[in-house]
Amino acid sequence: MLGAAMAVLLSGTAQSGAIVEPAAAPDSVLATATEPAVAPLVLKRDTPIHFMVISEVTTKAHTPGHRFRLRVDKPVFVDGVLALPVGTIAWGEVLAAKKSGNVGKSGSLEARLLYVDVNGYRVPISGSNTAKGAGGGAETALGVLALGPFGLLAKGNNAKIKAGELMTGFVEQDTEIPRPKAATP
Q: Alpha-carbon distance 77 to 25, whole Å?
């Protein structure tokens, strides 16, 4: 008898086209364990950042537009939280590169800092560096004495920013970066 009642009930639902929805679950079942929203860190404008050049940049091998890598050399903290650890990668760009020339003319190089790359976020930075090669005037004079007019072909030195050289940049504008995740034990 119970089976017949079920069959009638099911056939009536199928014929009427009604959709039977499950009963709503209690609120306690729907609630999920979500992590609380974590506020990002804000690197304030003019925050100093110390960098180290990773590989040499020279007028002999690099031209304007060449991008070069640096790394953060001293950690940067925001409200007691490590925002930029040592080793975080930053980028710079050669603005002008004048090669050394004859008669002892030295080369000159001008570069600027672009940004720090923090987990895919770019923190714009400002700062620049200029370098000038050592003059070759003494070498040219000695060359003229020893070789006559051929001594004038003595070249000056190329300018370079050496690997390991330190630079300081500054955050250009208030910039939000994600707060580092806490280490799990």
A: 46
Burial track 18-50 (b if 16+ CB lie within 10 A, e otherwise): eeeeeeeeeeeeeeeeeeeeeeebebeeebebb
CA–CA separation, 94 and 131 (whole Å): 11
Output the six-digit token pair for 14.
């199928």
The predicted-structure confidence for 106-163, as pLDDT tens digits, reads as follows: 788 899 999 999 988 999 999 998 888 765 444 444 444 455 554 444 556 888 889 9
Residue 5 tokens, joined: 């009642």
Q: How far is residue 134's CA from residue 182's CA, in Å, rounded to a whole number? A: 49
CA distances from 114 to 47, 85, 103, 104, 144 (A): 15, 18, 35, 33, 44
160 Cα distance to chain centroid = 22
